Each structure stands twice: as structure tokens, then as C-alpha cells.
Amino acid sequence: MRVSVLFNFLLQVGQELVPLLRDYNMRPQALSSYVFIAANIILHSTEEYKSRHLSALLPCIIPLLTSHHHTLRGFTQLLVRQVLQKLLPSDSSFYATMTLEERCFQDLRSYLQDNPDCARLRASMEGYLDAFDPKKSVTPAGIFSTRVEELEFECVPATLMDQVINFLNGGSQMLNGQRCSSYQERKLAC
């Protein structure tokens, strides 16, 4: 919902979002949310504001590509790739005439596109990212969307999640079994 609020106050994006993205003591999960908001502000802004938001927000996001937190780093990689994919020319013939910064971003985009780990992560998460529409996200249809429920979400590995659920269910069944047998023993003793 914060994305839609910021779209209504585009001039405050830099004032509100930049300090949050530069708060490196913030929990990685919260930073991931702000990276998501920033990337979508860049991606869905009108042409009038796009370059302003790009120059204010992208420099804050780039350092998060080096995070030791897997979820934050992976999510940032996917979102930066989406931004670069949309904003940089895909024709490599322009490479020779690009500035140093543009060439760096072009190479970063190529890395994020072609690296097998990034491609695997992108395959598991892209449905979630592509499904997001800031205008629809504030409507009931956008809030209660189930469009991507069947996709596995890599940032919470399904195998670990399954192990935790199985462990908790097993522990619960064991405790219920002990409680039932204890109840039956007391009932027989009476």
C-alpha cells in the first residue's frame, strides 16, 4: 500500500524513501520491502519523474546487492535486474558509446540476466514481481489476489519450511498421543 501512497506524493519519494534505504541497521526483511517499493516507484513512474527517481533511489539500492542476507541480496538482484532491463537499451551496439556508468550497469544487467543462480532465483520469484501492479494493489482484487499462490517462493525455501511444519506437526501429534494415553490410564485407574 505504501507504493500507492508514494505515487500520490512523488516529490516526497526522495525525502521519505532514501533515508530508509540507507538505514543499514534496519532488519533485512524491512529493507527488502523498501527495495521493492523503490523499484516499483522507478518502474511505474511517469516519464516526467522516472529519471529523478532513478537517480535518487538506484544508488541507495546498489549497495544492497552485496548484503550477506540471502533474501535481501536475492530480492535486490531481481528488482535491480527488472529496473535495468526496462531502462537500458538491449542493443549491445550502443555499448561502445556508453559512459563508464552506463557500461557498468549494462554489465551488471547482463550478469543478473545470465548468472545461473540469479536465473534460478528469478524463476522462483518472477511471478510475484510481475503480478504486482501499484494501481491494482490498493483495490480489493489486488489485496486478495491468489494469482501466484501455486508458485514456490525461494526466499523461504520450501524444504526448510516443510521440515519446520513436519517437525511441529510431529511434536503436536506426539503431545496429543501422550495426553490421550495419560487420560486413558487415569480413566482405567478410577
Briefly summarize what is shown:
It contains nine helices and no strands. It is an all-alpha fold and 190 residues long.
- How many strands, which pairing sense, and closed or not: the largest β-sheet? none
Rounded radius of gyration (Å): 23 Å
- Reading the helices and strands in chain order gives HHHHHHHHH
How many discrete structural domains? 2
Q: How confident is the prediction overall: mean pLDDT? A: 76
Tell me, what's the shape? elongated
In terms of structural class, how would the helical and strand content be classed? Answer: mainly alpha
Detail the poorly predicted runs.
Answer: 153-157
Number of strands: 0
Number of helical runs?
Answer: 9
Helix content: over 70%
Q: Give the distance, in angstroms, between the N- and C-terminal Cα atoms.
A: 60 Å
Binned strand content: under 5%
